[in-house]
Write a structure and sequence with these properties.
single chain, 35% helix, 20% strand, 15 helices, globular, binds zinc ion, 615 residues, 7-stranded antiparallel β-sheet, disordered N terminus, alpha+beta
């Protein structure tokens, strides 16, 4: 049994320091359109995404709520706006999810639905390019008067959906609508024009995507300008007539940030945009700021599940080490945001520590956001429950269901990266990937039962010709013992750089790497400054954080782990779609633990991650 400390100690003890970071390392993620996921863990989720999650989102957006009707009304210029002023964004995010799904699983029916929505969206665009159903139906004279009304936020999600749909189908109707909206915004705001600070970041990262698609530098420059607007007092008063700059990350110029503050999803989207722009503009000030806030988030303000934003009051960050369990907010969108941001930090640096956090947020905080069937969603993800917190079909503010609907079908984005000298293997998910290297078509097959087992095989399935490149294989921070075999031969002396084993050779068809990670049960201790977790321990195995549910543990309130506890783990394929169950036996007491992501999928009852512990 391995004892480890969580938070500061867990992370720093296994990670190399930043001083080795090669900032502006340009690693390109391998797009998920080249990745076919074939494993037993994620494939069923991708299937239920198409058969269940997307239909649920479509049903809610079009029939159970008025989100599509808002566009129909805006096109006619009559009728009421229903719902909340940012509801257009859910339509765009669901469209983005449909587009990603179409890329690997063509589906004429879904495509027809998307085309239908896009026609309605396009009809709602004003002659000057403006598009937002809330202001169109409540008074266009009031548009662009309140930073808090998410006009640019909605536009950003439209751009992301438009790019996704264009890539999936080649159809550019929504892309043209988006470009017209961007031109409208750029005609009003920018150098020598009006100042503006979007109250909810998102447009900035979307503009970078538009730049990457179009190669038109003005979109990148506009994103940079919007980022630089922050922290100079240009933000207008928000909803209650109160200007709360900290909440919007508008309290100081972003390159001077030293800590993470305010609304957590806003912060994640801001950091994504900063990382994108830093890479493209070689802005070392942004990189230094991101480095500082990353430490602040990960070492002081993140839960063991990778969840962030502990407070319900601001849906965001508070003081360091203020990480309550029952009251943890941990919005699903914020965990997905951690995946987006850490992926970009990896591309910027080549440091595995970012993928460690990405994996933690993905397998725990984000995955808990959706039920095993794919039909119910968490907005809030506490680490303990009295039995009264459950996933719902939908929410008035439905950012989380639509977020999950676009995140799941694109998880293939996070498995591989390529750079001049290397192919980077970040995540362990069974798949076949096709990478084109200077006209050399490289097909690699990854076989694994991760996260249940630590055995991973990478096989050079086919190559047009031998390939001289490093394979950089991530050693997860949780993994302390592993073996690597290349073509059956054990090697001990491969160099390790920033969390990656570097295997350099001339690769030929049929070459095989076997990566064998020990995956013991670990007892995790929180940083002692997290008051709620004093005298408690959590259980983790591989990338998965575990919890206990009352349904498995009738003595729920009396259970105590101790230094004498004996652990065993076994796979149970009939429980919760197949999970590895951990049992902890102490004296005559047995504690049964299940992965945190799988909780609240059976009968209602209490749950907790942090268990009482006796030395
Ligand atoms: Zn959300």
């Amino acid at each position: 049994m391995i004892l480890s400390q969580f938070s500061i100690l867990l992370f720093l003890s296994f990670q190399v320091s930043n001083k080795d970071d090669r900032f502006f390392e340009t690693i390109t993620p391998v797009d998920f359109s080249h990745v076919r996921i074939t494993d037993n863990f994620w494939s069923p989720r991708l299937k239920s995404h198409v058969t269940t999650t997307l239909p649920v989102c479509i049903d809610q957006i079009e029939y159970k709520t008025g989100r599509i009707r808002n566009f129909e009304n805006a096109a006619k210029g009559t009728g009421k706006h229903s719902g909340i002023y940012f509801d257009d964004s859910d339509v765009y995010k669901a469209l983005e999810g449909i587009a990603y799904s179409l890329i690997n699983n063509p589906n004429p029916e879904l495509e027809k639905k998307a085309d239908e929505w896009i026609d309605k969206i396009a009809s709602a665009q004003q002659p000057d390019g403006y598009i937002n159903t809330f202001y169109t139906l409540t008074g266009l004279d009031k548009r662009w008067t309140n930073m808090d009304k998410h006009e640019m936020y909605c536009a950003g999600h439209m751009i992301e959906a438009a790019i996704a749909y264009y890539k999936a189908t080649g159809k550019r109707k929504l892309l043209d609508v988006s470009i017209k909206m961007v031109e409208h915004m750029m005609s009003i705001f920018g150098p020598g024009k009006r100042h503006w600070v979007p109250g909810h970041e998102e447009i900035e990262l979307a503009l970078v995507k538009l730049y990457r698609l179009s190669n038109n530098k003005k979109y990148l420059d506009f994103a940079y300008w919007l980022l630089e607007e922050r922290g100079h007092g240009y933000g207008s008063k928000g909803d209650e007539g109160v200007w709360n700059p900290v909440y919007y990350q508008d309290d100081k110029p972003i390159r001077t940030m030293t800590e993470v503050k305010g609304h957590s999803v806003r912060a994640m989207y801001l950091f994504c945009a900063m990382a994108d722009v830093a890479a493209l503009k070689q802005d070392t000030g942004y990189v230094a700021a991101l480095d500082r806030v990353w430490d602040d988030v990960v070492l002081r303000k993140m839960y063991i599940t990778g969840g962030i934003g502990s407070s319900r009051h601001n849906e965001g960050f508070t003081e360091p080490y203020d990480l309550p369990n029952y009251d943890a907010y941990c919005e699903t969108c914020a965990s997905v945001g951690m995946v987006f941001w850490n992926s970009r930090m990896f591309q910027l640096t080549g440091n595995a520590k970012y993928i460690d956090i990405l994996e933690r947020s993905m397998f725990n905080g984000a995955l808990a956001g959706i039920s095993l069937k794919g039909d119910l969603f968490f907005y809030v993800n506490p680490l303990a429950s009295y039995g009264d917190h459950h996933r719902q079909e939908w929410y008035g503010t439905a950012c989380c269901p639509s977020q999950i609907s676009r995140f799941l079908p694109s998880i293939g984005n996070y498995i591989y990266g390529t750079s001049e000298n290397a192919i980077w293997v970040n995540l362990f998910i069974g798949n076949t990937v096709e990478i084109n290297e200077d006209d050399n078509k490289v097909v690699i097959q990854q076989v694994t039962d991760y996260p249940w087992e630590g055995r991973v095989t990478l096989k050079m399935e086919s190559l047009s010709r031998p390939l001289k490149k490093e394979i950089r294989l991530r050693i997860p921070a949780w993994c302390k013992h592993y073996e690597i075999l290349v073509n059956g031969e054990k090697h001990e002396n491969y160099p390790i750089e920033m969390g990656y084993v570097v295997i350099g050779k001339k690769w030929r068809e049929g070459d095989e790497i076997s990566f064998l990670m020990d995956m013991p049960v670990e007892i995790v201790e929180a940083d002692p400054r997290v008051k709620e977790n004093i005298g408690k321990r959590a259980i983790q195995r591989g990338p998965l954080v575990y919890c206990i549910e009352e349904v498995d543990n009738p003595e729920f309130d009396d259970l105590v782990l101790s230094s004498d506890s004996k652990f065993s783990s076994s796979f149970n394929d009939s429980l919760l779609n197949g999970i590895t169950v951990i049992e902890a036996v102490t004296n005559n007491q047995t504690i049964k633990l299940i992965p945190y992501y799988a909780w609240d999928n059976r009968e209602q009852g209490q749950m907790k991650v942090w268990l009482n512990y006796r030395e």
